[in-house]
Amino acid sequence: MTIRSRKADHIDICLKERVAPDHCYWDDVKLVHNAMPEIDMDDIDMTADVLGRKLAFPMVVTAITGGFPGAKKINSNIAEACAELGIGMGVGSERAGVKGVDPETYSVIKDFDVPLVIGNVGAPQLVKQKSGEPFTDEMVKAAADLIDADYIAVHLNFLQEVIQPEGDHNAPGSGTGSATWLSGTRS
Description:
This protein is an alpha/beta fold. Helix content is 28%, strand content 12%. The chain has 6 helices and 6 strands. The chain has a 4-stranded parallel β-sheet with strand order 3-4-5-6. It is globular, with a radius of gyration of 19 Å.
C-alpha cells in the first residue's frame, strides 16, 4: 500500500465506518443556565496569545490530513475557516509532502491568512526505519517551509504505525531525534 492510498484510507474510514467512541463524555457535562449573569457581553475578550500569535479565541484545528489528491480540498476548506475565524491550524503528518507526494495538499494553507500555522512530523520519522533513513534537520525545515509554519509539532502515534503493515515500527530513540525545533519561521 502506498502512502497516498493510506492517507486516503484515513478519510474514507471516517466517512464510511463507525469511528465514534462507545461513550460520549460530553454527555457527562451539564451546563447550568444563569438567567442573571450580571456581565456585559461587550466586556468579554476571547482573544489569546498562543505561541506568540494573536488568535481571535484560543483554538487550534490540527493534525488533519494531506498526501492524497482529495486532501487539498479538505485542507483548503479548513484553512479558509481558520483564517475567517482567526484561529490556528496544523496540517497532518508532512512526511508524504516532504517526500514529494502531493505537496500541494499541505501548501494550500499558504493561500489563506491563518494566524498560527503548525507543521507536523512523526516521532518515528526522526529515527532510522527499515524503510529508510530518519528525517534530517533539512527535511524538518522543508516541512516548515512547505506551509510557512510558525512551529513544527512532533506527533506520537506509535500504535497507529505498528498496526499498519507498511508503518514505521522502530521506536527506540524516537523521543530524542536529531531534528531541531523550529519556531517563529514566519514574520
